[in-house]
Amino acid sequence: MSSLPSPSWTAAEIIAHLKLLGTEESRAGMARFGINTQNALGVSNSALRPLARRVRRNHDRALQLWASGIREARLLAAFTGEPNKITLDQCRSWAVEFDSWEIVDSVSDLFVDTPFWHELVREFAADEREFVRRTAFAMLAWGAVHLKKEPDATFIGYLPLIEAHAVDPRNFVRKAVNWALRQIGKRSTALHEPALALAEKLAESSDKTARWIGKDAVKELSDGKTLERLAAKRA
């Protein structure tokens, strides 16, 4: 193994390197943020991101990293997987094993770049498992930010899905639904009005969860800084 991380490193070499970087202090800090540390080595994201850039994308290696079950290896699998090579069944297989909001949010950023991301959103939103359903809305949040070529109409089309699941009281679902609504509303001036209208509707709901999601989204979508950024985009 070369002294510096490189694209030639195998999954085993990366895992061996991760074990050298981990600390109990970092592991304890993760637990305080609600991160599942059962299979964690204690390596922070500030160290994982540069490592991912050094080893670069490699689909087969990403699958091996995921199969290890190690938190840090799985995050690297998310960071270095190739969205044009991962299959629909592989996405489903990974989703079944999601056990942390952190893993969900990292992998969702990979999934939303796949050619079948629309199918995944619908399928995962219908799934009753908390982390799988969270994945659908984390994908929408990432998609609103990263999918620059996607027409705004796509995201308008997902507002009814957001409304339908705004009554799911589970913490990791409701926060992702809220995240998706806010990101869609901040994407463009064309999306701001319908997203804000939905947020205002939810804010008046008799359902406690929907009301929280709506009020929080209204607050951000009505904020002066948000409006300034949207105006700058339109200019």
Q: What is the β-strand count?
A: 0
Q: Give the CA-based shape.
A: globular
Helix amount: over 70%
What is the strand content?
Answer: under 5%
Tell me, rounded to a whole number, the average pLDDT.
96
Query: Largest sheet at a glance?
Result: none
Radius of gyration, in Å, reads: 19 Å
Q: Extract low-pLDDT stretches.
A: none
- Total helical elements: 15
Q: Return the string of H and E elements.
A: HHHHHHHHHHHHHHH
Helical/strand content category: mainly alpha
Separation of the first and last Cα atoms? 52 Å
Task: Please explain how this structure is put together.
It is a single chain. This protein is mostly helical and 235 residues long. Helices cover 71% and strands 0% of the residues. The protein has 15 helices and no strands. It has helices at residues 11-21, 24-32, 45-55, 59-67, 71-80, 88-96, 101-111, 117-126, 130-146, 152-156, 159-165, 171-187, 189-203, 208-221, 224-234. The N and C termini lie far apart (52 Å). The model has no long low-confidence stretch (mean pLDDT 96).
Summarize the structure.
The protein is mainly α and 235 residues long. The protein contains 15 helices and no strands. Helices cover 71% and strands 0% of the residues.
